[in-house]
Design brief:
The structure holds two protein chains of two kinds. Chain A contains no helices and 25 strands. Chain A is mainly β. The chains are: A mainly beta, B mainly alpha.
Amino acid sequence: MTGLFPTSGENSGGGLDFITWEQAWCSEVLETPVRPQVTSMAAPRLPPPDPQFVLRGAQSAVHALHFCEGAQGQGRPLLLSGSLRGLVHIWSLQTRRVVATLDGHGGQCVTWLQTLPQGPQLLSQGRDLKLCVWDLAEGRNAVVDSVLLESVGFCRASVLAGGLQRWMLAVPGRGGDEADTSPRPLLLAGYEDGSVALWDVSSRKVCSRVACHTEPVMGLDFDSQEARGVSGSAEKALAVWSLDEQQALQVRGTHVLTNPGIADVKIRPDRRILATAGWDHRVRVFHWRTMKPLAVLAFHSATVHCVAFAADGLLATGSGDQRISVWSLYPRT
Amino acid sequence: MLPVDGFGFWEGRELGKVNHRMDPEVSAVRLTILEAVHILSSSEDGGRIFCTLESLKRYFGETENPALPEEQEEFARIHFSTFLRFLVGKLSPDWLELLPDGQMEELWASFFLEGPADQAFLVLMESIEGAASPSFRLMKMVQLLARFLSVGRMAAVMEGQCRQQAGPAFPLLQETLLTKVVGLPDRLGNRLQRENLATFFPQNYFPLLGEEVLRVLQVVVDSLRGPGESLRPRETEPEVLSRLLGNLVTKNKKAQFVMTRKLLFLQYSCTMPMLQSLLGYLAMDSQRRSLLMQAGPTTHQVLKELLETWGSSSAIRHVPLVQQRYVSKAILICLAHLGEAELQDSRDELLASLMEGVKSRLDSSLPPVRRLGMIVAEVASARIHPEGPPLKFQYEEDELTREMLALAMPRPAADGPSEAGPSFALVSGETPDRETVDCSGPQAGPEGSDSELDSDDEFVPYDMSVDRERRSSKAPSYVRGCLEALTGSEDWERWEAALWALEGLIFRSPAATQEVSVELAKVLLHLEEKTAVAGFDGLRQRALVAVTVTDPAPVAEYLTTQFYALNYSLRQRMDILDVLTLAAQELSRPGRLGKAPQRGSPDPGSQPGGAVVPAWRAVVEERIKRKTRRFSKGSAGQAPAVGPNEFNLVAGYFFFPLLQHFDRPLVTFDLLGDDQLVLGRLAHTLGALMYLAVNTMVAMPMGKALLEFVWALRFHGDAYVRRGLLSAVSAVLLSVPTEQLLADLLDELLEARSWLGDVAEKDPDEDCRLLAVKALLLLEKLRDKLLPLSSP
């Protein structure tokens, strides 16, 4: 749930320490209103693509995914997945096998994974109210530090890494969060009441807040170059909002979906497309600039919990059906 | 034409005349010729003959010292043909050798090739027909005629006719000439038999004639226009036609017949461009236009007759589909050419015949026939009655519909009334434009105006039809729950969810299903679409099939009784037939036991109307094909999956009750009357059940009963019913074991065979003929099988 972005104008310096965090609750699906079938007479379209490959063996629902660019200079990145049973699996995309399994959350669901760019360090957040820092260098897999969390919600943490050995972590909680010294980090947070807020972390106040959804926000992502973000919630719509020069958030539009419930939303690093993880078992792909729907991937047979893009554009989706599917859509040319 | 043997005949008659009429001016030519004739007949001196003939050429007007025009004219008119006959008479090997190197022959031939072409042609034809066969003279004349054609003298013949000619004999001459020109291939063929030259074959001769006609027309047009003007480079075809024919069609009965009847009603071989040119030609000029469309009661109206033919229920039954399409297209083209005002004049009349036709077409049980009705009705009603509510049918768009709708686009009528213009917009709006831009709600935000221009087209969306509403957890978990939800529930979400879940639940819990099977079938049969569920028909049908497969005997018994019960709609009755077929298909599927039931199997119910049957008929036909090959190859290619046919035990429940009451009309349901669509479907269903009962004990009695049914209905007027009967016969031949066919059904088969032969030859429906041929082939195989058995 991270949105990393430079502030417009004033802050082009090296230390980009901005963090985002959000808090949201999951709620049950209550309604399935009838939507009229819309038929399109346009030229016949290609059938939806199949996944490039599928990773099986997580042995429980996959709740977190993260691509880690080949630390040991390998050709293909590693994929990290966090499971319902508290295990973190590290997959080699080369062999498509599990390289290592980390167990540090006491059997509680792993909800968030993030590696730090400086070194082989991994952050993992679990439902056991712990945020662990792992050292993965040279095949080690030991917890070197951990932070106790106060929030029992579904909110995932967010990290912004800047210069050497300096990174900022935002974790959900009751009060303020630790923040490192940096020029004006900003943080986006999605709330249970459906609003998205922008925090000025150093002054610890809300710069702007906008109501995007009527249901809790479940995931958001931000395109810092266009100062535009997207959020998904338990309701049947995606919201697109933007941040203007005065750092005020503004809803630009909503995009109605077929079924309610978006667990995660990610914009591809090249900012061309975005993917959403749907409670309706489907992954939806949109063109980011126009929000034109591009594909509906109906591969999983249970709720899709998380989506992640690799730097090279590969898309991974993790689902309650214990499978991780990897897709190559609209490859970058 | 009298035969001409030599000079004697000419001499006697013509000399006498000359002697009587001592006209000095005329006699100059005559005397010259008489002298020449004398010399030619008496002299053996090659040089002298040569000079004499050469001197006569001045009458052709092409030499340095031509004769006077009057003399030329007189020569051509009075003396030339007689002289040519004389020359023909002189022809002999000796005579030709009077001069060396074939000079004599060349000179001789030049009279035929350079003189007035019409007479030369007539003399040539005459002498060929008169000459003894085989003879030197015949051979030479034939060669000369071939040469005459090859140097393009036919053009000269026709050109000569185009010049204004006077005299009472002219029409007679022209008639004779026409007969000879047209009949040349026949005459030469008869005369020469096997010696005929390729030039005279019709396939070579007529194209040549066509080219010559074009050349002449060009010459005529040029001479009419005078110098300076030339043909406009781009003329549409109707204009060319109009230029060529003028108003011939209104003046000449024969031309009128060809253009307004033969090409439109009696034949259907014109290509669409030809048809367009023809009708365009008729529409170009106001006089001709009246042929297409005029209020007068006596006038022959093309459009009205087309509409009547199109809508006549007898024509719909007995005319091949290709021709029906042809007539439909002709109507659309006609409409496109006619203006609003003209159509308004006889609107009531046209609408009446249109509606009559639409009714008979929609009554048909053949989908293509109905579709033609819909397309023409939509277009025609919009044109004839534009202010009325637009007629709109639901039909699938394919190549044919697109082609037809394109034909219906009005074109600006040259010459025609000026009102033709405005209607353009009207009909173009009629073409279906159902493109819906947005697939899933409002697009997010108008943002991105300042972003870089990355091309959106690069990302082509994939098919997103799978993106449907997800059924919520309201779906019942048990078959009984579904039953309750479908009957009592006012909760439509639950109702929908139950419908979605039902098929799966039935297959998962057969025992629970069997407890309520008949009740469930009843509910499903009477189920009405209460909400806009996508694919309601398919869901209901699949659930019904699942129930039938799970508990075949009671459910089939129930369904077959309901088929003949009161108070069902035709749709429900046809649903019953479809369900029985699909269930039987599933039951008889080899290797069905132990395998998961086929989910998401073919879903014919989701298609509208009669499109259901071809799906499984294609399956049957495909299997017939496969079977047929197997017969010829012996039993080598046996299918791998082997198991008892589960249909065996219950086939009777499916089959016999359906046969019981077909000839007893109910108040609301008369199979032998108006409800022939259901009868057709019944015939197909029985055939399919028969086929699926292969390898069962009951196949023989089923076959016997089915052949009786077929025999009773074999002359049914509806092609769809006949198709069903024919495929039923094939099914009997395939499913009943050979020995039993021969032992118990021989008489029936012999009867069927003569009927099949008749159908294969004479049936107006192409599919019927094809099916009959297939059945005959199966009978042949049977006979082949029989012969080796009886011979030892």
